[in-house]
Amino acid sequence: MENLKPYYLKKKKKVRCKKLYYGNKDKVGPPEPGSVGTAAAPARIPKGKGQSQAKVNISAALVEDIINLEETSEDMQAVIEALKEDFSRNLSVRTSPGALDHITVVTKDGKFPLNQLGQISQKSPQLLTVNMTSFPESTAAAAKAIRESGMNLNPEVDGTVIRVPVPKVTREHRESLAKLAKQSTNKSKEALRKVRSKSITQVKKSKNKVSEDTIWLLEKQIQQMADEAAAEMDKLLAAKTKELLG
């Protein structure tokens, strides 16, 4: 009578499925993202809660026909170096002759750095002078540029000589410089975003020649580079702010 049981009462056999291995028999699951240029493009794995985003490290040589990653890196580094120079030259608690060198003076003939129009010297710890004998017609414009430089300076014009008293270092002055440091950093980050956008636009031009995943990986790499550069700028700002506020 056992054989007469309806088919739905019969015990079903369990079917064992083999585990899927991807290159490594000790590891089960989907393949890890590989480098660009492999035979098969890696699958995108969404980032879950508590998961850290995997870092992308693409060989520049493999994608040189799409974008020059080394050039992108150099452009981003140039923005960082410009910020460092700005901090060093223009944002010091103690005003020195070098701090006035690159103040931009607007004249009827165009824009020029102050040190191209006048001779800057330090007469005493409390006084700087700018001799405008070579370009006397630009004396008023130079004094205006110094006054509006954001360095808390109040120049006095004496013929073709501009006298610049060095202000006492007050808490207000320190805070003003720290604010300028923040503004400079924001401008540098804007320049960094332009480098990133330009590079991503360049990558997207190759979307008809390479896989979608390759484009995605390259965009992620460029964003990663920009994030690292921005983090370095934040460190520079933190150090400068600490220095300025004392």
Automatic annotation (TrEMBL):
Quick one: where's region Disordered? 23-50
Q: Which Pfam families does the record cross-reference, listed alphabetically?
A: RRF
UniProt entry keywords in alphabetical sequence: Mitochondrion, Protein biosynthesis, Transit peptide
* Ranges where the Ribosome recycling factor domain occurs: 83-245
Q: Has UniProt tagged this entry with the keyword Nucleus?
A: no
Recorded family membership: Belongs to the RRF family.
> PANTHER family from the entry?
MITOCHONDRIAL RIBOSOME RECYCLING FACTOR PSEUDO 1 (PTHR20982:SF3), RIBOSOME RECYCLING FACTOR (PTHR20982)
What is the protein name for this chain?
Ribosome-recycling factor, mitochondrial
**Gene of this entry:** MRRF
